[in-house]
Amino acid sequence: MKTWILFLFALLSPILQAEILEPELFQLAVKYEEDTKTLQQQKTAAIERSGKRYLTDLDFAEKSATASGDLPLVAAIVKERDSLSRSPGKEFPEGLPRSLKNSRESYLDGVERIETTHLENQERIDADYLRSLGSLQSKAAENPKLATQIAAEKQRLLEGVKSKDTTSGNPLSKEELAKELIGHWYWGSEKLWMAITADGKAFLDTKILTWTAEDDGAVTFVDTKETDATAVCRFNIPDKSFTGTNFDGTPVKGTLKEKR
Predict the structure, then answer these.
(1) Taking 60 as the threshold, does the pLDDT of residue 163 lie above it?
(2) Which of 207, 205, 237 is closest to 219 using CA atoms?
């Protein structure tokens, strides 16, 4: 029994370990941490499965480059393989053979779907935990310590949502973000791209725009001819990509074409 209790405490986040939770909340918190940990493990395993084909293609390309004595190509392949353990950018790496382009895109598309599914499932787990916390409100009315702990857990959930909604993979100030935006970005497809300049202007096809980086990490583009027409995007600087809402209200996403 003692070993089991210690195991349960090991599952808890540092915040939960900071104090002994009331019994009613303790059980719910353990379940929440277990569900979150299991979901993360499932995501990791899914990404590993998704990457097997691409890794096989990289191995084949490396053997071919080694046989031909192409050291720069081997170096590029090794660098790409190492990047898979982190978060490889969507822009096709310089030095890689173009024969890997389709395989790489399939891998990244698969990872994106897995990440989206993981986020949706985590949101459901968060919602279930929030409802469970709500079920303790009547008991909390007579137990100040429990009420304080419930409030802390709610705040932890809210901070997690804020982090996912506002950082978009780049915890930068709006000034830092603004500097990183300067350049050319593919808009929706590689057939159309936007030029973002340092003077607060942007050019998309025939549109002349103004842009503003916000404190929450969003970037708002305004059409100078139709000021009520706006697009709002969140840029993931490490990933060199963005997602958002187009001027007509439809979803839009893109990647960095070239930095300026």
Answers:
(1) no
(2) 237
